Amino acid sequence: MFERLKSEAKVLGKPSWRGMFQYAAELHERSTHPPREPFPYPWEEIGPGYHATPAFGHWDVVHEILDTMPAEPEHAANQVLNDLAGQQEDGLVPGTIYMSGEKPKWNPLVGHPPLWPVAAGEYFDLTGRRDLIESCYQPLLRQIGWFEKLRKVGDNGFYYSDMLRVTYESGIDQGVRFDEPSAVPFPCVDATSHVYQLYRHAADWSRLLGKDPTALGQKADAIGSFIREELFDGETGLFRDGRALKERRLAFEGMWPVVVGAAAPAQAARVIDRNLLDPRRFFTAHPISSVGAEDPKFELRMWRGPAWNSMTYWAARGCIRYDRPDAAARLLEKALDCSAMQFERTGTIWEFYHPHAGRPEDLRRKPETQQNTPCRDYLGHNPLLAMARMWEKTRE
Questions:
Q1: Is the peptide bond before 185 cis (omega within 30 degrees of 0)?
Q2: DSSP assignment, residue 90?
Q3: How many domains in the chain?
C-alpha cells in the first residue's frame, strides 16, 4: 500500500518540502490497520503520535482522505465508507472512535463537523464512478435529518453543542467562541455553513442519481440567504455566530461561508483581503492563525491562536472558489515552508504549529491535562500533500 503516494511525495511541490512529504506518506502507511469492528475496510487512524492512539474519525479522517485521494483512490474511498459504518439509526455519524479496547467506543450523542461529502465528491470527480455516491446518498440524508432534529435554531440556523457545554463537537476544543456558554442555542457560523454544504451535496447527488433535487436545493438556498443576511459582520469583514454584535471575536470559523460557497462575492473578498491575508489577523508567519493576532483573546494555546494546516487548506479552497488563486498560493506556500522548516528541525509532523514560526514545543495544548504540547506524528490535521497539489494548480 501507499507506493504511489510515496512516489508522488518524491516529486511534489518544492524540493525543500519533499522530505516532509515522504515522511507523511510513510505515516499514512504506519497509521493504517486491518479491518475490525465497525470498519469493513482497512482503517487509518488519526496518527500514531495522537495522545489517545489508536483512534479514527472526526474531521481528521477527511483530511487524511483528501491527502491520499489521487494517488490511492480506493483507500480514500474506503475511509469514507469506514466513516459512515458507525452511523447510528438516528443519523448521527460518530465523532472520534477510540479503538484501544476490545470494542470501539464513541459518544453516541455528539457528532463532528460533517465534511466527508467533500471527500466523496472528490472521489467522483477523480474517477467518474458513481458507486461511492450511491452508497453515501442515504447516509447523507440521514445525517441531514439528525441536524434538522437535534441541532437546528429557528428556520435556517444550526449549532454545535460546544456553545452549551464542553463536548468538542465543533472540533474546536476550548475555542474562544465558547468561553461564555450560552443558556440557549444560537446559530453557529461553522455549523450553519457545514449544513448548507450538506444540502448542496445532497441536491447535486440527487441530480446525479436521477432524483428530484428541488426541495434540497431550495433548503440550501434558504440557509445561504440566512448566512449572507444575518451572519456577516460588516465591521470586521468576517462572518460570525448569531450572537449579539458585542461578541465580535476574530475566530477563523468566520471563513466557513467562503469555504462552502455561501458568501456573496463582495463578502468573500472582504474575508480574504481583510482577514485571511492580513498579518494583523490571520496571515501570521505560519498561516492561518486560529484566532486573529490582534484579538485580545489570541494566545499560544490549542485553537486560540496556533496554526492548523488543515484549516489553511480549507481557507485556500475558499480562496480558489472565489477566483483568488493568488491568495490560496500565498497561504499554502507560507504554511508548507514553515511546516518543512519544523520537520527539518524535529523530524516529525506536529498536530498544530506556532503562528509566529516559533517552536511547536513551546505551544500549550490543554494545560489541565497531561498532554499540554502538540502531538507529534499527527496526520489528522496535516493534509500536506493535498496542500501542495493545490499550490501547484495555482501556478498553472
A1: no
A2: T
A3: 1
Q: Which residues contact 309 (CB under 8 A, 6 or more apart)?
A: 335, 339, 353, 381, 382, 383, 384, 387
Look at residue 25 and tell me if it is in a domain.
Answer: no
Q: Please give the single-letter amino acid code of residue 47.
A: G
Count of residues making up the chain: 396
CA distance 335 to 238: 22
- Per DSSP, 247 falls in state -
Contact 386, 67 (CB under 8 A): yes
CB distance 33 to 45 below 8 Å: yes
Whether 373 maps to a domain, the answer reads no
Within a domain: residue 286? no
Strands (E) located in the chain: 32-33, 43-44, 55-57, 96-98, 152-153, 157-158, 232-233, 238-239
Number of neighbours of residue 340 by Cβ within 10 angstroms: 20
Output the nine-digit C-alpha cell for 100: 484501544
**Could you tell me which residues come within 8 angstroms of residue 43 by beta carbon, excluding any fewer than 6 positions away?**
32, 33, 35, 36, 56, 79, 82
Reported as type and span, the H/E element at residue 15 is none
Type of residue at 204? D
Of all residues in the chain, what percent carry a pLDDT higher than 90?
A: 95
Name every residue whose Cβ is closer than 8 Å to that of residue 128 and which is 6 or more positions away in sequence: none
Backbone angles phi, psi at 251, to 5 degrees: -100, 140
Rounded to the nearest angstrom, the gap between the alpha carbon of residue 184 and the centroid of all alpha carbons in its chain is 26
Report, as ranges of residue numbers, the positions in the chain whose pLDDT lies below 70.
244-247
Domain span holding position 201:
151-276
Class of residue 128 by CB neighbours under 10 A (exposed 0-12, middle 13-18, buried 19+) = exposed
- Residue 138 lies inside a defined structural domain of this protein: no
Dist. CA 50–CA 63, nearest whole Å: 15
Round to whole Å and give the CA distance between 190 and 159. Answer: 8
What tens digit of pLDDT does each residue of 238-284 get?
Answer: 999 997 656 688 999 999 999 999 999 999 999 999 999 999 999 99
